[in-house]
User: What shape does this take?
Amino acid sequence: MAVAGASQQDDSRCHTKSLYRPFACRVELVRDLTPTEKMFRLVRLDGKEFGHRPGQFMQVSITGYGEAPISVSSSPTRGEYLELGVRQAGTLTAAMHALKPGAEIGLRGPFGTFFDTDAMKGKDLLLISGGCGLAPMRALIQYVVDRRDEFANVTILYGAKSPQDILYADELDQWEHAKNLQCQHTVDNVPQGTCWDGNVGLITTLIPPLEIDPSNTIAVIVGPQIMYKFVIEQLFKKGLGDKNIIVSLERHMKCGVGKCGHCTIEHLYCCMDGPVFRLDEIAHLKGAL
Ligand SMILES: Cc1cc2nc3c(=O)[nH]c(=O)nc-3n(C[C@H](O)[C@H](O)[C@H](O)COP(=O)(O)OP(=O)(O)OC[C@H]3O[C@@H](n4cnc5c(N)ncnc54)[C@H](O)[C@@H]3O)c2cc1C
Ligand code: FES
Assistant: This one.
């Protein structure tokens, strides 16, 4: 059975006002992940649940600094908070990086399609992420870890540019030591003078040695644009079909709710029809990958 990105946005479209109005959240915890990425744990001031699913994103805003889409990086199975992994890229994210616990921040969402974990039940999962892609992938990994019995073999692969760019290093270590998961990570290169005894090479080098049952495997890929083509090539060599490969795509976004047209891939709106797509839905579209 194929797994598609699923959407809960059809319901929320009825509540147009609430789509545009941010709700207030308090920053509970800020943690450095790398020199350029921080993790933020947020709770809603109104005490309501976020209602997110792994793979979805929030529109995050700070008055005077604008708004940006950021993927949810924690699973709803972890409680009433929501975590974001944020790279300092420009105006809004720089303002976020200056926040301390106790600060308030605005959120809209959750928006977009999500990883269809119901359709993944009983399947072998191959979860492949690169760079900042581990942020949304972490939400799915946490979900799978918390409901481990629902899934068959689970393999996690992660690639970062260098040792200092590795996100969630402590959790990667836990996943690598978990008896019911297979987890490996690699770095593209190791700067001189850096202590590192792990894998070196592109993430694609981790795929050929894997034993994969293509008839029962769902692969999920989240990472920088350049990664998709080469990872998909390796998965095709393993016999996986495009209906069993799920990707999450990033596009420039403004409204997040299908109104402004900034995020289109041909006829699709990445903010509503995505960001999670099944490969066969988008592979033929110009500029999708
Ligand atoms: C679905 C989705 C999920 C995402 N999830 C995450 C996530 O989990 N974590 C994360 O860190 N990011 C994520 N992003 C990316 C994030 O939304 C962008 O990095 C966003 O632009 C950050 O907003 P900003 O205001 O900080 O940056 P901006 O101010 O918009 O700047 C972003 C980039 O544009 C450049 N720029 C800005 N203005 C100009 C200009 N005038 N001329 C030339 N270049 C300019 C900046 O130098 C910078 O490189 C996601 C994006 C999408 C679409
Ligand atoms: S971000 Fe506005 S239509 Fe998608």
Remarks:
- The pocket of flavin-adenine dinucleotide (ligand 1) is lined by residues 57, 66, 68-71, 85-87, 89-93, 132, 135, 250-251, 253, 275 (CB under 6 Å).
- Helices lie at 9-12, 16-20, 91-97, 134-146, 169-177, 225-237, 279-282.
- Confidence is low (pLDDT under 50) at residues 10-14.
